Amino acid sequence: MEMLRRNLATISTLAALAFLTAACGKVAYKTPDEFLSDGELLAASMAAAADQLGENRALAPENGPFVLESLGGEDESAWLYSRFEDEVAAELSGRGLEVLPEAGGEATVIKYRLIESRIVNAKAEGGRVKRIGRTIAHIRIYGAGGELFWAGEYAGEFDNVVPKNVLSELKDERIEQIGPQRPEAGQNPFVEPLLVTGITGALIYLFAISASAE
Length: 214
Hints:
By secondary structure, this protein is α/β, with parallel strands linked by helices.
């Protein structure tokens, strides 16, 4: 009887191992959660910028409710604008402020435009890469009567260090990032700074001559 029990236990163990082996053959191993994708990294930087916006004194309960309105063009990244608005709405709601889905009646309007929302890669030690998500948003806050309460910019950053060999897995080409324009093909990216430096130098020289003449 004891021998039979041992045989049954052995058979059960082997069956379980066979099942796990078969199941593991179908597993698609994903990148660890701490390796943030493009979308996750950008969303984290937006949340950081929204957190700063939430501290603005114009966004007080007595000035509510609030409406969010995009100043971005139709050709700009829809995903970035939609996600930024979600992050701002969540931040304000978390602070106990009422956020309306659309304008109507007496409401304070928060207009926004993304100046920059992109990922910058920097070198890190040990064959790793520091991926920096950066979002800069221009904000204008208008009262219910159309008066401008406040205008300025808020910036948020969030970084994530990853092995160099996982970079391709974290990229998301569907997200059109916003940032400084890249130089066109054949254009020297150093020409403009050199021209500006030359003009500045000439002005300083002329100012020095004028001052010495006096």
